[in-house]
Amino acid sequence: MSTYVATSRSLKDDAVADKFFISLIDERPEMARNERNMMNNMLELGCSGISWKRIKNTHTSRISKYKGYVSQKERTMLAGKASGRVSASSTQLLASVVNFASWEKLQKHSLVNGNLPRERTVVPDSRSHILSYTMALHPPLCNRIFKMWSTWDMQVDSDGLRTCYFAWCPFEDMEVGMYSGETFSQLGSFISRSNLNVNNLTDESGSVGNSYKSLKNDVEAKAASLSESAKNIINGNEVSARSSGLYVFRELAPNVTFVTLINLIDLKGHLPALLMDLKLTETLKSLDNMRKRHSRDTEKVDSEVREHMKKVFARDRQDDQILSETDDMWERCYEMRKFQAQPKSDRQRVSSYSPVRLLSSIGNRKEYEPWRAMDSPCALTKMERRKNLTLSNGNNLVTECRASCICDCSAEDAMAYLWDACSDTRLKGGRESSLKAHLDKSLALYVDQHDRVFEPAGGAGGGRNDVVAVLKKLPWPLKKIEFVFSRTWRKIGDGYGIAVESVDNRVNADYGTVMKHKVRGFMQALILIEPTQSGTASLESCNLKLFQVLNVGRRHNYIRLVDSNKHIFESFVKQNAIKVRKTFEKDKIIDQLGRDQIKCVIADDQTGCTEEEEDFLDNIHDQLDITGSMAFDTLPTPDMHVNARILLRGTYAIIRATTVLEATIEDASAYEFAPSSRGKLKYFIEQHGKDRNIVYINPHSYIQMKRFEIPLYKQREFVQRYVLKKSEDEAGSKNIEIGIDSVQHNLFPETNQYIRSIGTSLFIFEKLPPLFGIPQTKMSYVAKMTWGGLVPGRFVRVKAQEGLAWILSMRKTFDKKKTLDALERKQFIEKLHLNSWGHATSSSTAAYTDEEKKDIEVGQEFFRIFQNNPTKKRVASSSASVINEIAFRKNDASGWGLSETKIRAKKEDILAFLWNVDANCCKHVADIERLVLERHNAHHQIAYLCRAAAVKGYSPRYSVSRMVWAEVADGSLVVVHHPCGHSKEEEQQNDDGRKRVDFSSICKVKETLDPSICKLTYIYHSVGDKQLSMMTHMKQMMELVYDVKSYFLQLRVASDLEDDDGRMLGEALSHASDSTVDSCFRSYRALQEMDDRFPWFKPMIVAVLNNSLHMAPAIDSKLVFLSEDDGHVIGSGLALPIAINLTNDAAVEEWLARYPALKEFGRGGDGEKWFIPMIEVIAARLLSSAAWGMTTRVLIGGGVSLLDFASDLYMIKLYREDPDNFVFSYLMIGMVGLCCLLQLGIVTAQNWKAPLHIKIREMLYVICFVKPAVDAYRVATGNVQSRHSMASPVLEMMAVRCVELFAESLPSACLATYVVINGESSFAALASILISALSAGYTCASISYDLDTNPDQRLKAPTFYGFLHDDAYKRSICFVCMVMLSALLLIAKSLTTGLLMSVSLKAFLLENAVEFSLFFLYKVYNMDVVHPFRTEGIFMTVLFSLCIPIGTKVISDYTGLVFFRHPNFLGGFWSINMVLTFIGMIFATILYSEGSVGGVAGGGVDADTDTAADFENTRVLRITTVITSCLSLWILTFLIFLKSINESHIKSFFNHETSKSYVQSFFNSPSDSTKIVVLSYNARVWKEIRPDVKSWIAVNWTQWNYERPLWFTSSFKDFDGDLVPESSDKFNIMKRKFEMQRSSMKITVQRIGRMTVDHGRRGGEGKIFPKGEERGEERGEIKGGGGEL
């Protein structure tokens, strides 16, 4: 027989290998004696007394890592230990460890150690394997070779859980053979000849190999054919190292394993300790990789562990070893249950269970404060505290606390959750900045007891005792508070108890780092878990009670500012009781069961009222006078479907409200009548409820006492009786009444502590006919509330509004408006198809009347009127995909508005949305009321709309309009609105001062080439209102287009979304807060789908929106392995790229590069292509709103410029005060003036076609020296190039910065250096040089950084752009290096210039003439004279070809600007220029030293010759030292810079590509969007390929006109006319449209001025038409064409 031996080549092969090994476990051979001995030795080694110490900065990891030292054979070996939970079975993990040379491990091995071997050989008929690998060390250190013998074992406990072991030791430590007939020496020779990666996999046919028996012969046969080079790799001169260790895989649940890894390594030789620690850490990372590979949902994993722990707790094994110390602790803590009810006589006994051994007692003054209630963050949780005055003194504040909570789970569930203190679920905390949130972000870890190294802590392994450390993090300046406490648990009857007590200061937690500013707190606590009856047989519940004594002391700074004990107790309750409650919460199920019971009572006719109850209900009717006609005021509600009115009379108020619920009458009444529902309890607490009690009378009546603790007022108390009555009239209509009235009851007597308030309410539920099969119930609510005491009317009104919150929650619970809207649209669309789109083909649809045709025609004319309006302008919209324009004149009484977008929906769906104006989906946030007053026919109706005023202080605006829709000739659908009157208009008038606004509008829905995409255009015209109110109302109405687009986006699935949809999702999310993110996810189907499919998606979005600036770790996991925690880490990783990048798209690109899984998610083959545009929109908002985002960029951009300018002004002042340097002040003024003049020239050229006021504004920015800050603001906020601008904001900013360098920073630095060389060096002059150098360095680095990180540039020219790494850390290094390179070069070059000027002006000119001559000769030689920038005319071409090369050459000489290596500037001459600059520095230094010593350069010293010579020698030496130091630092910095950038871009620093070849290379791209870049350059540069460009345009012209890509309009607006295909009449069309607009401009203005509105007060009489036309005159048939008449 033969065995198939192969090497894994993919992850799939690894999975097959693991599966094969697992299949052999049950048929495993017996362990040999030596295998058993080696396994036992490793187990003993793990339990030996090694002094373990946590590895630095691993305390926050889910994997605990330690290091220690072991002495063996007179040698110290480094030991490492790691332990943690992994979400996989023990056999899976054992198989992955046994597969030592898997494909995945080989890949990681090659990344770390290069192409060095890593092998595994299976020993036949045994459990042993031979492992070997080579560890690479940096030269001159030798590589280390490890040869190891390994074996494995498995045990199964009584619960069926497995524990697997995998041990290994050095190969040379084995003394006998591992299988019969083989000795150690024979086996060693056998292994030395094998150099194969041996893994038992499936053969080509898919069948499993034949086991181990014939493996030896196969290995020997293949080993004989090995090459000598392969043998030398193993048997070379590398150092043989030793490694031994052990894996223990102990299952906590069938698919959850606690893993312990112990590894001892001896690398031999004398190696640095830092290197040893590094290699040890790398070996321990295997557990991190294991956890990452098998990551699953943390909540699911923790629940699986708890299921096993429940079995352990239920057994309550008595054979566990219980120490006497824990018994004593249990007894002390168990006495704390007397907190629950303690008589006054027993107060002195408190000292017996107080932590007297930890806290010092003082005299007995007043022993206790009374119990004080605390605000509970959860409905079913009560919290109280009191101060223990006996044990409190100046340094201690002892507080006793107690809490109780009802949990919807069994006692075992709660016990398992609490005992597992460091589970992933429990360590999740808040991320806000408040004190309570900081306490929630506590760090919890088990204090390791290394004598139980292989046992998991926290009770997962069945233990009763453990030690836990909790570190509570407080905001600065408060210190951290540490609690280190011991825990033990006991079973008490059917329940459980946990005792907690702080340990001595001698027990410390090892965090792996020095935790500064922490204080040890002391605590005693008792947690009791008692099973209770939930009221439902199918559900379990328990009562959790927490008793706690706390002392955090007052020894640490500023702790007196806060009640620390109170907040810490709240955090403990949150981390324990409330988390248990929320984890097992079943509120909805319990409430539904309670309502079902009430429904059974109603169905069984158990609601028959007694005579006394009938009188009770009649009395309620009389009190409320529901048939009366009092003057009620409108009470505004956030839901327009709830109509509410209020009548205020002193201290009482009468409220009326009506609404319709999408529920049966039984469901609605049961929702209100349920006395103990969790929803009512939450509502009660939200209304400041303190206590309540219920007394049941019969199934349909009960009495309830409620107490409210209202801030600033005395507490109020209600005692009310509830009675439910079911009735049915003669017609069979069902009604249910619920009467509520205040009563007296002996169980609730009146007290002076509370003011007895009176409340009378009546709910009437009437059954309505179902709508589309959905039940309908009308609910009427009348209430009279008397709060008693002296309360203002405003308080009564506010409380009345709060009382409506319960009705609103009831509507939300039963809300099915979306379903009704969809069914109504479906019905409308079916009628459309049935009636052939509104034409008179059926008797059910009347033909269009002349009046309706008139309305349609007038509405279509709006398109032409608006198009020819000269005052129209673009305004901001709610979304970038929606175009909004308005047209109005100052002091004009009419206004026009246009809104337009494309919607991915069918036109009939959009028409149905627009037509059903009273549907819930059409509701706007400002709507007060919207309804249809009358429906004339299927295409004509009268609508009423009332909206709140957008301007504060204005009355609400309402309108009555006639709506008509039709299909016009071009196939599009139009819906027109015209003002009219109606008889029901007066009925809608209210007391809120509504004012009528008349408007006309038209909505046009037209299909595009893709039938699933429609273009929606909305034109709005309003007259007769104040201009401010009219404009704000107009903008509100124009949001209709955004609402339609948003609604249909909410209905679409993720796979159908496009880039624009992603941007719109980003806009919706960017305005969401932490509390509204959930609502956003529920509203959009695509987001909900992502949340269901990817558990990390929602935490990532929340973390992105939080935008907390910190260094997030990199995560290289694949998409399928991401967890919720990974999502949070990835989301918080976006803040840093936003902070260090100039644009949002560059920040997102860096973020995507840091987390490869996001690229797979957004750009993979099956990726969500809308994801990246969505994140870019969110990043843009964060960039502009974050305090460290746009503000920092503006301050730095303007601050650097202003600082440089301020230093120049100060130097001008000093020069003017010095007679010798007086002339230099004029030079400095000239430099500043030249800088302003050149910047004014740039601004003028940039805005040459802009209006005059824009030119003046831009010039003022330059004159006020704030132009750099303005440019930084524009780029940071994402401003695009306007139609008046010649270049983009980024290029304009770069040009302004370069001018500032050329005309101000560089000359001023050279002048200051010249003055220092030839005069006395003052501090001001040196500071000015340094400021100029740093300013120039920062400017140059910013230019290179911003342009290189631009995603568009990287996409177009990837060979040049992209030298910066995607890693933020390396980018920061590169940025600092670029600042240093420019600053150092400027200092050295300015010194060189000063030296040459000191020698003679001729020397300076000669040196520059030589360099410029070489530069232009280089340009001529490469035929690269014409600059590629696009210009008009030969003069501008020559000017640009001279000025730009000279300017860039000067800036590059003094700063070495990295970006100027671009082929369009210096190109390959950049590296030559650096060499020439260094040669010039050496030449200038030599020339100056010779001239100064020989008396050529005057030093200005009046002394004898020897003194002058010494002075000059000293000066030359100092200058030479400075220049040499700068050059040396420059070279060193440049080497670091080259090491930090992408290696593939190093050649771009020495590439001699010309601008002509660079420009023409764009045309070689396969993408049209990249090819089109050629047309943006000077035509003389690409004239060789002009015929190819022309043919390319001719071939694709028709397709571009059809597809209309984004670059088509902007890039083709000014190109040469001969490139346009001859068949194109584009220019003729544009010319004709321009002439038409010009000729009709005057007529259009007159028509707008003469438009009048006639709105009759009779239904259907309102019309719009110009003066001079008779009313009722025929205007022709319905036409299409968007208003083209």
UniProtKB/TrEMBL annotation:
* Record keywords: Membrane, Transmembrane, Transmembrane helix
Start and end residues of each stretch annotated as Disordered:
1656-1685
Q: Which SUPFAM superfamilies match?
A: Bet v1-like
Q: Where is the composition biased (Basic and acidic residues)?
A: 1656-1678
InterPro entries in alphabetical order = START-like_dom_sf
Q: What transmembrane ranges does the database entry give?
A: 1223-1245, 1323-1345, 1368-1387, 1433-1452, 1464-1488, 1516-1538
Q: Which domain of life is it from?
A: Eukaryota
Q: Does the keyword Transmembrane helix apply?
A: yes
Which protein are we looking at? Answer: Uncharacterized protein
Provide the species name: Triparma verrucosa
Q: What is the lineage of its organism?
A: Eukaryota, Sar, Stramenopiles, Ochrophyta, Bolidophyceae
